[in-house]
Design goal:
With about 280 residues, this protein is an alpha/beta fold. It has two domains: about 180 residues, 3-Layer(aba) Sandwich (Rossmann fold); about 70 residues, no CATH class. About 40% of the residues lie in helices and about 15% in strands. It has a five-stranded mixed β-sheet, sandwiched between helices. Helix 4 crosses helix 7. The two termini are about 20 Å apart. The N terminus and C terminus are likely disordered.
């Protein structure tokens, strides 16, 4: 993917400074994989003008947040979303406990290796797969399941761990922003990303926003636990993205740069007109 595409595809800049009194960190120190050109220079120029107190575009320290989409922006999404890959593997692992899946779609096709037929049902089929594979356990148990899968699963084409299918230029961009005082957030499947986001991206779990399923409180063996339910709590897609930013971060974007379409148009509705980059 070209550097310009990496900058623009599903990338949302909402900048807010976390630390006061920091000087601008040189891009040459933290953006070594970025080719010299318009995309790289636009990043440097933007960071400079929003961090200089004498700049007309200066953003107050408490209002500078950088929010990134995950799939296709920070890591690959080919040949399909990696979280869906996880769900498919979970269907196979759980199949012995669900003999009825042999004759029930979309599970029957998945167990036969026919992913295209399984997903022919569109969003409804994907949701059914996710609910069946992401629920029924505690939050701690699910975190362990995700970590175990990431430790052993491999990308079907590259044969590399999924956590190595990240874009190096984007890792550098995250580090560059943080070095200049930005607080970085990531959007996607919350419970799937929180177990590993800090290790791979330097983004702590509390700064992961997006889609989630419902949980309920229970006492098990005299211990408090949260049980994951097969019910969607929030869907972070299209017009849901700016809603997630509002509900889960609580600040309007100071700047935005993203792809065209539902997400771009919706998020731009939250931004000052002169800072919208859709």
């Amino acid at each position: 993917m070209k550097m310009k595409q990496l900058l623009l595809v599903k990338l949302i800049f909402c900048f807010a400074l976390s630390f006061g009194g920091l000087g601008l960190v040189q891009a040459s120190d933290l953006l070594p994989s970025w080719n010299e050109g318009k995309a790289r220079q636009s990043i440097i120029d933007f960071v400079a003008k929003v961090t200089r107190e004498d700049s007309p575009d200066f953003v107050p320290p408490a209002e500078r947040i950088a929010t990134f989409d995950n799939d296709g922006t920070l890591w690959s999404e080919q040949p399909m979303y990696f979280q869906l890959m996880f769900a498919i593997d979970r269907v196979k692992a759980l199949a012995p406990l669900h003999p009825e899946w042999k004759d029930k779609e979309p599970f029957a096709s998945l167990l036969k290796g026919d992913v295209n037929t399984a997903l022919a049902g569109g969003e409804h089929a994907m949701l059914e797969i996710v609910m069946a594979t992401h629920a029924g356990n505690t939050t701690e148990e699910f975190e362990t399941i995700v970590k175990d899968w990431l430790a052993t699963a491999r990308h079907p084409t590259t044969k590399r761990p999924y956590t190595e299918m990240v874009y190096q230029p984007m890792l550098e961009l995250l580090a560059y922003l943080r070095a200049n005082g930005f607080k970085t957030f990531i959007g996607g499947g919350i419970e799937f990303m929180r177990p590993w986001s800090e290790k791979i991206y330097g983004i702590p779990p509390e700064q992961v926003i997006g889609s989630s399923i419902k949980v309920k409180f229970e006492m098990r063996d005299n211990k408090p636990v949260l049980i994951r339910l097969p019910e969607l709590d929030f869907f972070d897609d299209k017009e849901g993205k700016p809603v997630a930013i509002h509900q889960q971060i609580g600040r309007r974007p100071a700047d935005a740069a993203m792809d065209h379409g539902w997400a771009g148009s919706a998020i731009c509705a939250l931004c000052p007109p002169h800072r919208c980059r859709a």
